[in-house]
């Protein structure tokens, strides 16, 4: 006995573990559908998992928003050349998994015994706010150093 709302939480996270955009959708909505709305105010590269592979989505994001979608290829796809920077960034995709793990275990947003839809959304929003106020978030620790100029 209980309620099942069948919801998905879609997140966009930067390299410092900060949540840039989020959206809650019904469980039957495809993962690729909310991506254009989540990326409309972003720029740069969008690192995603294999569930987001779509040529139409890739072209839409690049043409409309200037966002480059980077994913690993599926086992039945042909190999393609990829810049080394993109390969390294794909390995760093674990940051989103760390954020989701903290949301589930520390902020406890995966609570399955809600008695009303309002309570479900309040619990999700409270967990997101609690995560945003954490002093230590998972990050990539990128350190950019300026190279000394060579004098001729």
Structure description:
The structure is a single chain. This protein is an alpha+beta fold. It has one domain. 34% of the residues lie in helices and 15% in strands. The protein is built from five helices and four strands; from the N terminus they run ββαβαβααα. It has helices spanning 35-38, 55-65, 84-91, 94-105, 117-132, and strands at 7-13, 19-26, 44-47, 67-70. The strands form two sheets. Strands 1-2 form a two-stranded antiparallel sheet. Strands 3-4 form a two-stranded parallel ribbon. A hairpin with a 5-residue loop joins β1 (7-13) and β2. The chain is globular and about 50 Å long. The termini are far apart. 9% of the residues are buried.
State mean pLDDT (0 to 100 scale): 78
Largest sheet: 2 strands, antiparallel
**Distance N to C terminus:** 78 Å
Order of SSEs, N→C? Answer: EEHEHEHHH
Give the overall silhouette.
Answer: globular
β-strand amount: 15-25%
Number of strands: 4
Helix content: 25-40%
How would you describe this structure in keywords?
152 residues; alpha+beta; two-stranded antiparallel sheet; two-stranded parallel sheet; 5 helices; globular
């Amino acid at each position: 006995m209980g309620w099942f709302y069948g919801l998905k939480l879609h997140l966009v996270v930067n390299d410092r573990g900060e949540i840039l955009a989020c959206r809650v959708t019904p469980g039957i909505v495809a993962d690729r559908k909310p991506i254009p709305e989540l990326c409309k105010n972003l720029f740069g590269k969008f690192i995603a998992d294999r569930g987001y592979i779509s040529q139409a989505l890739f072209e839409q994001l690049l043409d409309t928003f200037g966002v480059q979608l980077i994913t690993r290829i599926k086992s039945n796809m042909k190999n393609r050349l990829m810049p080394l920077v993109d390969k390294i960034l794909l390995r760093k995709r674990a940051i989103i998994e760390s954020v989701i793990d903290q949301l589930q275990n520390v902020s406890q947003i995966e609570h399955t015994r809600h008695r009303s839809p309002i309570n479900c959304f309040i619990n999700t929003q409270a967990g997101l706010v609690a995560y945003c106020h954490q002093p230590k978030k998972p990050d990539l620790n990128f350190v950019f150093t300026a190279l000394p100029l060579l004098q001729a």
